[in-house]
Specification:
This protein is mostly helical and about 425 residues long. About 60% of the residues lie in helices and about 0% in strands.
Length: about 425
């Protein structure tokens, strides 16, 4: 019965994202698709930080390997991105069960993660592969960590540390794993003292990866402030941190709507049953640990967390939404009565699915506009195009590669129909 809940969620998620398989490529997508894996690429990715001051060899090599056979075919890129997202949904369900969250709450966690409105950029944009891959390995490491705590099997901790290393070398969001591991123990009511050894092991691997990253990059690295040329993380201050963690991040998590176009008012009414979550009887300790998990997963992306009302950059919420889904599942478990649980769960899933469909509509419209623009200007390339439109990346990067793709094929490049 448990797998039936999950199967329904996966099928519904695939149905929601089905139209996106025909979306054209955008911005950085063209650059990534035009740089397939080569021997010099492998050596450079393993031994140096990339040009934008990031050391992400695991994700860089995975993207370059896919470019070998996917080329500039949007259908292949979108299909593999959706497949990895669906796998991550399964891992959320497994993790929730390992945290002693029972069904249907565990399945609801997977469902919220699957159709949350912030998934559009994270799943439909190739540049967000870093987030999807880092989350995949992060979740694998989490499940194996808890499995080791239960069975003390060497294979479990070995797999955990390997998956953690791959997550750390996919994107910086995984560096919060040691703190998240402590909170996993608290949420699942496992003893802390008897699990000091695996906690020390994951802390050592995280520290070693950070030291290697610092050495190769000659410092912190990461996104740079255009005004100062310094990493953006050094711009963090108490006001920004408090604003993000106490208000802005929670507003985005609960209402992930691209306000570039007004959503249907009916969408907001569907969310109304969730207000009953305020009356949950979840234990305070477990509830605060679940809230702490969300905050912990937000910490690595604080410097990029001031996402606007158009949700541009919402891919950074891909991993934090995993903690948010766990939090809502914990709250849902504390609601007395199966009928009340079912009503609240249905309201949550329908609301977030509605935000997903609303945001997907905007993404599809802008991506088709980007392709038409590239086709119409291929003969006489222009020098100035918008970086983004309505919260969707346009041609901040990738325009020369898009024009080259049109000239190479001799006919307009477009996505194959998936219908």
């Amino acid at each position: 019965m448990n797998w039936r809940w999950l199967a329904v969620i996966l099928l519904a998620t695939a149905g929601c994202f089905w139209p996106s398989l025909s979306f054209p490529l955008l911005s950085d997508d063209y650059w990534l698709a035009s740089n397939p894996l080569r021997s010099d690429t492998i050596r450079a990715d393993l031994s140096h930080a990339s040009g934008d001051s990031f050391y992400r060899p695991a994700a860089d090599l995975a993207i370059a390997a896919e470019a070998l056979w996917a080329g500039t075919d949007p259908l292949i890129w979108h299909a593999t991105g959706l497949l990895l997202h669906l796998i991550n949904c399964v891992l959320i369900w497994i993790l929730a069960r390992r945290l002693n969250i029972v069904d249907p709450a565990a399945s609801i966690a997977a469902g919220i993660f699957a159709v949350h409105g912030s998934r559009v950029e994270a799943v439909s944009w190739m540049g967000a592969h870093y987030d999807r891959q880092a989350t995949f390995f992060f979740l694998c490491a989490s499940v194996l960590f808890l499995q080791y705590c239960d069975g003390r099997r060497a294979a479990s901790i070995t797999g955990c540390l390997l998956a953690l290393a791959l997550a750390l070398f996919s994107k910086e969001s995984a560096y919060c794993f040691p703190i998240a591991a402590i909170l996993f123990l608290a949420i699942s009511r496992r003893p802390l003292r008897s699990n000091i050894l695996p906690l020390a092991a994951v802390a050592f691997v995280t520290g070693a990866a950070f030291a290697l990253r610092w050495w190769l990059q000659g410092g912190m690295g990461g996104y740079l402030d255009p005004a100062t040329g310094r990493p953006e993380i050094w711009n963090l201050n108490a006001v920004l941190i408090a604003h993000t963690l106490l208000w802005r991040a929670w507003a985005l998590l609960f209402f992930p709507i691209n306000w570039s176009e007004p959503p249907s008012i009916a969408l907001l009414f569907v969310f109304a049953p969730a207000a009953i979550l305020a009356f949950t009887r979840t234990g305070r300790r477990r509830l605060w640990c679940a809230i702490g998990l969300v905050i912990t997963l937000l910490l690595p992306v604080l410097s990029r967390s001031l996402i606007g009302r158009d949700l541009l950059g919402s891919r950074i919420l891909y991993l934090p939404v995993a903690g948010f889904a766990i939090l809502l599942a914990v709250l849902l478990e504390g609601i007395a009565g199966e009928t009340q649980q079912a009503i609240i769960a249905a309201g949550l899933i329908l609301f977030f699915a509605g935000t997903l469909e609303h945001n997907l509509g905007i993404w599809g419209r802008v991506s088709r506009l980007a392709l038409r623009t590239c086709q119409e200007t291929a003969a006489r390339p222009v020098t100035s195009l918008p970086a983004e439109i309505d919260g969707v990346y346009f041609f901040r990067n990738g325009y020369p590669e898009c024009v080259a793709a049109q000239k190479l094929t001799g006919k307009p490049q477009s996505a194959r129909s998936c219908w």
